[in-house]
Each structure stands twice: as structure tokens, then as C-alpha cells.
Design a protein that fits this description.
about 280 residues, alpha+beta, Urate Oxidase, two-stranded antiparallel ribbon, 5 helices, globular, oxidoreductase, EC 1.7.3.3, Uricase, purine metabolism
């Protein structure tokens, strides 16, 4: 029986980078986590212990920091493209570089309507994400963007009725419930030559507008509406995938205490939870 090496890659993960961008009169604080994956001619490294083509992962880490001073001044997608092009152009054994950048947002503090020049507050659970895949040989890069940890809720315009029922069903139908989810979204761009910051802001705001205004019949219903809005409004996006777990808020039974719960008092539960995903594409 013949044995050979299958698909493989290697790289450096969890490279934590903080960058202070010093503008006249104020600073920006940028914090990201970078992952590098290199694919290519690494068979002899696996089969013979020959490291002649293995760029050390420590070198990859150092490259992230060294290139950050000049090149990490704008969109995380742009920085990921710089890193991918560096590794592909400098290492002929690399057939593809994949770079992932996750940004942990900081916002300038405001006092009396004025932004403080160099003091910041963390952005909570939400993170912005970018992925670049660049093949060797002159093929164009592919660029994905997205977000994680976007916690949203609404207390009206949400229901869940008409579902199958059997002997194990206890969930009552409702036309008035809390809809809460922690959105994770990823979309692929049509080009690597775009205004990534402006597009990210537009897409994020569009999803929030849709979530708030959509008369939801289920999480699936709202997930599709949010993806549909992005594709209709943004021709630069090929497709979008969303993950929207249902963060359940269960009405608490106040009857033993002589009170009626008119959808005002709830138990927030962490687990178990509904897990809903979907990809919205163009035909």
C-alpha cells in the first residue's frame, strides 16, 4: 500500500499586535490578532525531516510586526493583502498564503462632547475579521470580511408560530417574543481593490437596520432578510454567510405570586440554545 502526504499547511497563529497611529492632535489605538497559513512544497519536511524550505513560524511572527509600522495604517483587509503578497513573493516554495486578521476595537473616550486625544474604551464583544487567500503564480487574491460577537436584541416584531408539534413539544406559539442573537457574518468581496472600511460600515449598518425593522417569523426568516439586504445593496459582495444563535429569553411564570406576566419578566438562558446558520447567494 502506497502512502503519501495529503493536504497540509503550517504557519503562526495568535500573533497579537497593537499599533498606535499618531495623528497630529490625536491617536488611533488598533489591536489585532493575526494568523498566517502557508501551503506549498513541504513534502520533504514531513517525510525526510528536511527543513530547507520551511520558513520558521517565528520569522512569520516577526514579519507581522515589522510590516505593521509602515503598512498597518488602514483597513485590516489591506494589511492582510500586504502580508500575503510578502510571503508569496519572497518564498517560491509557497503555493498559497492565507492571512486572517481579527480586530479588537477601541474607541476614543468622549467628555463634554469632545473626543479625548489619547484615551480609549474597549469595544465589547464585537470583533471585525478579514481573510485573504493569495495563490502563487499571479492569480488574483480572494478577500473575505466579516464580524463576530455582534450582540443584538429586539423586544417587538418577533414571533414563532406554525411549526410541527408532536408528543414531545412543550414550546407555546407566540407572536410577541424577545429576539436576541450574537451575529457572526462573513462575506466575500468581488475584488481586492475596494474601499474596505467604507464597505464594512455600510454592510454592518444595513444588517442592523434590517434586524431592527424586519417583522420576524423566526431567526431563519431574519437571517435571510439580513443577507438579502447586503446583496441587494452591495454589488461588491459575492455572497454572505451568517451564524445567528438564538439567545433565549423565556417568560417567567409569575402566577404563583398572584401576578400576570405580560411579556415583561424573562429568564435569560445561556444553554441550550438554537443554532441557526445560512448562506445567501446570487443566482
Amino acid at each position: 500500500m502506497a502512502i503519501k502526504l495529503g493536504k497540509n499547511h503550517y504557519g503562526k497563529q495568535a500573533v497579537h499586535l497593537t499599533r498606535v497611529i499618531r495623528h497630529p492632535g490625536h491617536h488611533e489605538l488598533r489591536q489585532v490578532t493575526v494568523g498566517v497559513q502557508l501551503s506549498g512544497d513541504y513534502e520533504r519536511a514531513h517525510t525526510h525531516g528536511d527543513n530547507a524550505l520551511v520558513l520558521p513560524t517565528d520569522t512569520q511572527k516577526n514579519t507581522v510586526y515589522a510590516l505593521a509600522k509602515e503598512h498597518f495604517t488602514g483597513a485590516i483587509e489591506s494589511f492582510a493583502l500586504v502580508l500575503a503578497r510578502h510571503f508569496v513573493s519572497r518564498n517560491p516554495q509557497v503555493s498559497q498564503a492565507r492571512i486572517e486578521v481579527v480586530e479588537h476595537p477601541w474607541q476614543r473616550l468622549h467628555f463634554d462632547g469632545q473626543a479625548h486625544p489619547h484615551a480609549f474604551v474597549g469595544g465589547g464583544s464585537e470583533k471585525r475579521r478579514a481573510v485573504v487567500e493569495l495563490p502563487a503564480g499571479g492569480a488574483p487574491p480572494r478577500v473575505w470580511a466579516g464580524l463576530q460577537g455582534l450582540l443584538v436584541a429586539k423586544t417587538a416584531d418577533s414571533g414563532f408560530v406554525g411549526y410541527p408539534k408532536d408528543e414531545y413539544t412543550t414550546l407555546p406559539e407566540t407572536t410577541d417574543r424577545i429576539l436576541s442573537t450574537e451575529v457572526e457574518a462573513e462575506w466575500e468581496y468581488t475584488s481586492a481593490e475596494l474601499d474596505f472600511n467604507a464597505l464594512f460600515d455600510k454592510i454592518r449598518l444595513g444588517m442592523l437596520h434590517t434586524f431592527a425593522g424586519h417583522p420576524s417569523q423566526s431567526v431563519q426568516h431574519t437571517l435571510y432578510a439580513m443577507g438579502e439586504r447586503v446583496l441587494e445593496a452591495t454589488p461588491e459582495v459575492k455572497e454572505i454567510s451568517l451564524v445567528m444563535p438564538n439567545k433565549h429569553h423565556i417568560p417567567f411564570n409569575l402566577t404563583p405570586f398572584g401576578q400576570e406576566n405580560t411579556n415583561e419578566v424573562f429568564v435569560a438562558t445561556d444553554a441550550p440554545f438554537g443554532y441557526i446558520t445560512g448562506t445567501v447567494v446570487r443566482e
